[in-house]
Structures are given as structure tokens and as C-alpha cells.
Amino acid sequence: MGQRPAELRPHASARHFLGAELRCWRQQRGLSLARLAALVYVSPDLLGKIEKAERAASLDVLARCDEVLETGGALGRLRRFVDHQTAAQPRTDASAAMPARFRVVTEIVAVDLEVLTK
Predict the structure, then answer these.
(1) DSSP string covering 43-69, please?
(2) Which of 6, 12, 23, 71 sits in a 20 to 30 Å window from 33, CA-based?
């Protein structure tokens, strides 16, 4: 008996939506992850991660899935949506979140007070 499939959250992001659509098409065609993976020449683990939005899908893999699942190119079109959403999101990595840092250097110069008071 196989594992219970992970619950998907298609409205969490474009990548999640693509993964849910891939699973939907696969199930409609009556294919297991292992069978679809064999037909598109990737590992079942990779397809499972794409479905759960844990890995990004390449256009090549999605094109092969579109062909095998006879989606009419739906998955490839969704990949462009994923790319667009990713490009539109602001950066959230540590370097983008850190404020600019400045180094202030001061120089102390010895002054002859007698010269200044004359």
C-alpha cells in the first residue's frame, strides 16, 4: 500500500499551483508518480517534490509531462506564470534585508597650540 499523498496548497504561490495542477493531470490520467516519472525520464522523487512545490520544475520536464499527460501545454504555460511571479517578488535574502553599513574613519592630528594662539 502506498503512502498517503501530501496535502497540497495550490493558492499559496504560483509554484504550489503548478504542483497541484501536475498532480491533478497525473491523477486524471490514472498514473502513479513512478509511472509518470518513467515516462518522462526523471525520478519519482523529483516529480513528488515538484508537486509539493519543494523543487522548481524545468521547462524541459514540464514539456515532457505536457506531452505524456496530453495537457495541451498547460504545465509549460504555468511555468511562465511561476517565473513571472518569482521575478516580481522583492528579494528576501539576508543581503537585501540588511541596512547599508558605513565605516567612519577619524584622524587625530596633533596641533601646536602656541602656533594657534599667536
Answers:
(1) -HHHHHHHHTTSSPPPHHHHHHHHHHH
(2) 12
pTM of the model: 0.68
Q: For residue 88, give the 3-state DSSP assignment.
A: helix
Q: Which residue has the higher pLDDT, 81 or 96?
A: 81
pLDDT at 95: 47
Q: DSSP secondary-structure letter at 11?
A: T
> How far apart, in whole angstroms, are the C-alpha atoms of residue 118 and residue 38?
93
Separation of alpha carbons 98 and 1, rounded Å? 49
Distance CA 97, CA 22 (A): 34
